[in-house]
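Case study 2.
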Amino acid sequence: MKKLTTLLFVFVFASSMAFAQNNSATSTSNGSHNSSTIEQVGSSNTADVMQSGNSNDVMIDQGIQGIATNNDVAEVNQAGDGNSVELDSRDGWAGSSNSVNYDVDQNGNYNSVDAVAFNAPATAEVEQNGKGNSANLMQTISGNMSVNLTQSGANNSADIYQETDNAVLEATVSGSNNSLVTDQTGSGAWQKLVAHISGSGNAVTGELGGHNADNFTKVNGDGNDVDFYQNESSNAGISVSGDYNDIDLMQNGTHNSVAATNPWNYDGIDVAGSGNTVGVTQNSNYNTATATVSGSGNTASITQN
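Prediction:
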């Protein structure tokens, strides 16, 4: 007996490519294996894509290097599994006061976001709900860049690279066996990381700052691994609640501190639970460190060279 299968494929595609200003493109698709590509050259570009289904992909390219564009906005909403988003944004020359803004929302499993923003201040909002999702975000060659990342589920990964002054990363990761890698290594100063990690078996690794970096991290759960490196004149406040967590912090250079921080009110490194290990290493002079540990079978060490 033969089985007759009917495949309904709906695909709406919108693309805009012009040197004029105020470009606007919208794409909506329902089903699987759909592709949406939007290329915009000019200023005040907006792109809005909505996809529902599996194995869909989006590619948005905005701006042009060397021409002062401004206020480019890209928004993508995907529901389903195995979907992907690729964003490439650039505005003007390095140090431009123009802006790049992108917002990605994915619900489902094994979805991915890859985004690059350079030559202008950039604001990123990325939210992924499900398992096996990944986010790879790069912001570089400018200042005043920020990422707000939310991931919930299991086996998700995020790799955030900000080579810029005045970089801010706010990350909320919940679930199990998730990975967060941060790199805020601008040649200047004033990088900030605010991370809230909840669940078990999560791994957080971060390198922060040429100097003047602030690190505020809160971990709730068991078996998490947190490893940070900070450079000169940086501050850290880390709070851990749970069992068998491993916290390592190294600070190089002078005037670093692991102490009370505001407005997050983390009193240096504060650990509650059992079987936790905390290690702080500070190299050079004029550094301060505070570690408070409560529970049983915990180990805390502070080394100042």
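Residues 1-20 have pLDDT under 50 and may be disordered.
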